[in-house]
Structure formats: C-alpha cells, structure tokens
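pasting for ref
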Amino acid sequence: MNSRTPMHPMDIKSRASQFADILNMAQVTDNLGAAIETESAMCIILGILKELRTSGRSLFVIGNGGSAAVASHAVTDFLNVGQLRASTVHDPSLMTCMANDFGYEAAYARILSVLARPADVLIAISSSGRSPNIRNAVTAFRDAGGTTLTLSGFDPGNSLRSLGDYNIWLGSTDYGFIEIGHEFLLHNLADRLRMGL
C-alpha cells in the first residue's frame, strides 16, 4: 500500500491507533463518582491487590460471555504471576444450579454472598455495564464487606460504573476494543504484581 492509498477502517494501524486513544482516554471514578487520574487509580488498585496477597484474602473475577473469558484469563495471570488467591465462580454446574434455583440475575450474587469475606476483592467486568447479574453481584459483595472494582464501557452513564469502589470506564461501543482494553488493564496489574515479588 502506498502513501496515497486510503486506509481501510479495519486496517491494523488504524485500529491500533484507535485502541491506544481509548486506553489513553480511560476514565476512573470512585464510589462517589469523583474522578481519579488513571495511573493514580492503577497504583491504588495495585496497593489493594498487594495487601490482598499479604493478608491471604481472596480475589474473585466475574463476567458474562467474552467478559467471562477475560475474567478467566485474568485469574490465570493473577494466580500464576501475581500469586494471589484468585478465582472465577462461573463453573458450569455451579452457575446452572444457581441460575435454575434463583434466576440468572441472582446467580453470581448468590455464590458470592456465600464465598465473600470482609476485605476480599471483586473485579466485575461488563462491556455494557448493564448486565443485571453483574450489578447484583457487586451489590452483594459490597454488602459482605468486600472491595469492588468494575470495568465497563459503552454508555458513560451505565449503572455498573456507579457501583464499585473503583470504576474503570472505556469510551467505546466496540466490543473488541472494550474486551481487549479490559484484558490489557488487568494484565498490566498482574505484571506489576509480578515485578513487586
């Protein structure tokens, strides 16, 4: 392709530039909606995860669909390189039991209400920020005395974004960018944990 050939909107260089812009424009807020500079927020979250490792408390990571895959990948990194007690709770038998008995919207909340202890940490991932089961889980986890981090995208006013102790929002409506962005941020935290060992 010469310099006069226009780039296709899905061209790798164009997409990479768009992805960098989305990450650079990430917004983080606390539980009162106050803005926190992104790097400062990452350092705060890293400190929470380091304390979690020292105390032997647990990290839970949840999501639906592609976000569940991001959760699984993140747990692998947090456990393997970050040496955290990290787990997902979306085992198919457990999830289908809870969904059948209590409804899908309550499945994660029901599981976490049994597992969560004060000072545990939950990372709740929803690209849209509108998934009722993820929102309900965050509420149940906070009621149990845990600390919550939410990751979302799409509408800046999505309801998940106001529920966490720390809330990271990516300004895009592209599932690919949001999911990879969430994975990038979680991988960055795991890598920082590894460097601190």
